[in-house]
Amino acid sequence: SSGLYIVATPIGNLRDITLRAIETLRDVAAVACEDTRVTGRLLQHLDIKQRMIRYDDHADERAREGLLALMADQPVALVSDAGTPLVSDPGYRLVRECRERGIPVTSIPGPSAAIVGITLSGLPSDKFLFAGFLPSKEKAREHALAELAVVPSTLVFYETAPRLTDALAAIAKVLPGREVAVARELTKMFEECRSGTPDELIDHYTANPPRGEIVLMVGPAAAEAASMEDAEKLLREQLRELKP
Ligand code: SAM
């Protein structure tokens, strides 16, 4: 029936598509996607012929209105290049509009790199905070990390290979004493998850420049530093240090 179907797709291994995802992609009237070439390849692999409509949250209002009008009386799927839509990917504005207008929204769950990373990391997984991509500029990155210093949970970031060692250096500086884990190429042939101190990982990845996509995780502050008072003191000091 009509509405928006949020469909998760594989993050590397094409066999991670779910039965419900296949059925949905086959049955909808159109598939909204980030990149028609990437989604075209997935659909071809699944032997599905579908109308594809390019969508991103920054698309102009008219494009979004067109999609919403279609969803109001036909089923439309939203996929991203890989993984779960809306998780550091487009879709949030679309879902928000659907909810405001009473257009039904259904989620067809599947892989998301953050969840795969957390399950492999060996870091506490009872509570974690997904923080998306760190800023690429040094000061902004350190500021973002300082803001998270008081969070008593594992921190999960998406990262790119060229920026990994800079991000590790920022963690060593702003969140000293934390255990870190780097998960790479998840669900693919060269999947790896490596943990240690930021300095150990900087040494390793300087000697072996990483390739592929990365989930970077930071363990919670050690128990003795985890009291709220200590954490607040730490945050104040770090914010003061970062002031220009
Ligand atoms: N929506 C996606 C999801 O649910 O995982 C994430 C999209 S985001 C634009 C892309 C980032 O996800 C990459 O830079 C990387 O940090 C992470 N990622 C995606 N696939 C991955 C994989 N196979 N292994 C490790 N990280 C991955």
From TrEMBL:
Reaction catalysis annotation: cytidine(1402) in 16S rRNA + S-adenosyl-L-methionine = 2'-O-methylcytidine(1402) in 16S rRNA + S-adenosyl-L-homocysteine + H(+)
SUPFAM superfamilies given in the database record: Tetrapyrrole methylase (SSF53790)
CDD domains to which the protein is assigned, alphabetical: RsmI
Main location: cytoplasm
InterPro entries linked to this entry: 4pyrrol_Mease, 4pyrrol_Methylase_sf, 4pyrrole_Mease_sub1, 4pyrrole_Mease_sub2, rRNA_ssu_MeTfrase_I, RsmI_HTH, SAM_MeTrfase_RsmI_CS
Pfam families cross-referenced by the UniProt entry: RsmI_C (PF23016), TP_methylase (PF00590)
Signal sequence range: none
Domain Tetrapyrrole methylase: 4-201
EC number: 2.1.1.198
Root EC class: transferase
GO molecular function terms noted in the UniProt entry: rRNA (cytosine-2'-O-)-methyltransferase activity
Keywords: Cytoplasm, Methyltransferase, rRNA processing, S-adenosyl-L-methionine, Transferase
Cellular component annotations (GO), alphabetically ordered: cytoplasm
PROSITE patterns: RSMI (PS01296)
Reported function: Catalyzes the 2'-O-methylation of the ribose of cytidine 1402 (C1402) in 16S rRNA.
Family: Belongs to the methyltransferase superfamily. RsmI family.
Protein's name according to its UniProt entry: Ribosomal RNA small subunit methyltransferase I
Name of the gene this protein is made from: rsmI
